[in-house]
Amino acid sequence: MKIAILNGSPRKQNTSAMVDAFCEGAKEAGHEVEVLHVGKMKIAGCMGCEYCHTKGEGKCIQKDDMEKVMPAYLDADMLVFASPVYYFDMTAQLSAAIQRVYAIGKPAKAKKAAFLISSGSPNTASGAIATYQNMIGFMGIEDAGIITAAGDENKSEAKLCEIKEFAKNL
């Protein structure tokens, strides 16, 4: 299975350890994994201009780093979103990368998705989870799982082992 991971963290934070653990488990299971650090890319949000649907034939009028991300959206069998929680939601960078899928409607091959969420405090991820669930529901993609980590749990061996095992068993 070809897995694309969109890491929404703009700096090396707890999601990096989570993504690394996921990659390790997925690769051990024989999956091909591509990590896209969308949090460090220049990706603007969707402008709703409809160029992609009227003249662009599925291509956005904006020319930015989304051009590096779109091939992964189109080719992945599974999408994994990873984000720290910034004020009750995923990062703006990851949100922009999700919004821009509007140009193609939905990923062509993706049948599964997962969400890795890191937070400094417990009970702050519900906004991000709702966005993720609404998006994959609309796209008709199966939820393979949501893993959250808060506070000290973020870099704990137990949590990283849980993520690795989760990826191994996809």
Short description:
The protein has 170 residues and is α/β, with parallel strands linked by helices. The protein has helices at 14-28, 51-54, 66-75, 92-99, 126-139, 157-168; strands at 2-7, 32-36, 78-84, 112-119, 142-150.
Task: Describe this structure as you would to a colleague.
There is one protein chain. The chain starts with a strand and ends with a helix. The chain has a 5-stranded parallel β-sheet with strand order 2-1-3-4-5, with helices on both faces. The protein has helices at residues 14-28, 51-54, 66-75, 92-99, 126-139, 157-168; strands spanning 2-7, 32-36, 78-84, 112-119, 142-150. It contains 6 helices and 5 strands; from the N terminus they run E-H-E-H-H-E-H-E-H-E-H. With 170 residues, the protein is α/β, with parallel strands linked by helices. The longest helix has 15 residues, at 14-28.
Record the SSE blueprint:
Elements: E1 2-7, H1 14-28, E2 32-36, H2 51-54, H3 66-75, E3 78-84, H4 92-99, E4 112-119, H5 126-139, E5 142-150, H6 157-168
Parallel strand pairs: 1-2, 1-3, 3-4, 4-5
Helix/strand structural class: alpha/beta
Biggest sheet strand order reads: 2-1-3-4-5
H/E series, N to C? EHEHHEHEHEH
Would you identify the regions where 5 or more consecutive residues have pLDDT less than 50?
Answer: none
How much helix is in the residues? 25-40%
CA-CA gap between termini: 9 Å
**What's the pLDDT, averaged over the residues?**
95
